[in-house]
Description:
With 281 residues, the chain is mostly helical. The protein is 79% helix and 0% strand. The protein has 2 domains: 1-152, UbiA prenyltransferase (Tetracycline Repressor, domain 2, Orthogonal Bundle); 157-281, Four Helix Bundle (Hemerythrin (Met), subunit A). It has helices spanning 3-9, 12-28, 36-60, 62-68, 81-100, 105-123, 130-151, 158-180, 183-189, 194-198, 200-223, 229-234, 236-251, 255-279. Helix 2 (12-28) runs antiparallel to helix 3 (36-60). The longest helix has 25 residues, at 36-60. The termini are far apart.
Amino acid sequence: MGARAAFSLLRPANCAMIGFAVLVGIFVSKPPAVHPLQAVLGFMTGFFVCAYSMSVNDIYDVEVDRVNEPRRPIPSGGVTVRGAVRISIVVLVVGIASAVLTLIPAAVAVAAAYAFLSWLYNARAKQTGLPGNLIVASSLAIPFVYGGVVSGGDFTGSLLLMMAMTALFSGVGREVVKAMADVEGDAKRGVNSVARTKGQGAAAAVGAVFFLLAVFSSWVPLLLRIANPFYTLGVVVPDAIFVYLAVAIVRRHDPASARRVKGVALAGMGVGLLVFVGGAL
């Protein structure tokens, strides 16, 4: 098992984004004070539980990936299934241990729930289609809430909750569109994605609706008049991206377009993170 392949199994860029989302949650919740160690532990929990999710996904999807993503570490032979299982256990232990070290029971509960949902999606819920998409998309919303919990800030604040909802909606849209490019491989696991059960056109419409819901939820802080000038101006950028993606996938809903849209959606989420940080200043 090569170190490079093992590192690739964890998809560190995705995990870093989740860890950063925890830091954003800490910042947006506006706690009275944040100990640097708590922030570091929060980032580590987000990063390593996400790494667990990524590795478990590749373990359960190995036959699907042989068709859809043959270059991934397991189907390409870079990592064995047994090796991937060992890696997933190690990163899970590190992630949960980081939560335990915060000495906040609620933080441990949220981290454990995140890990459980990651397993549930890959082991059982992926085959359900849209409900599974909702579960996996929750992994984009939970880190913000976790940040509020671990910092002792106001995790029920409107801006933080709207940020979590925006992440959830955009995540569901991306998952629905992503499945449009994976129909052939998904058939091997009996995944009842919208694309497989209703067709590519229906999947494109559903994905577009969730992208537009993300845009709508991002405007709620403006309607509630809790957004600062930076947020008011900055939110136009990620919103324009998601409106474009909604139109693009409805106009062309072939697998190649779906792959492009899912990639751009990830970039849009990253821009949205920066806007929410600015909105909390």
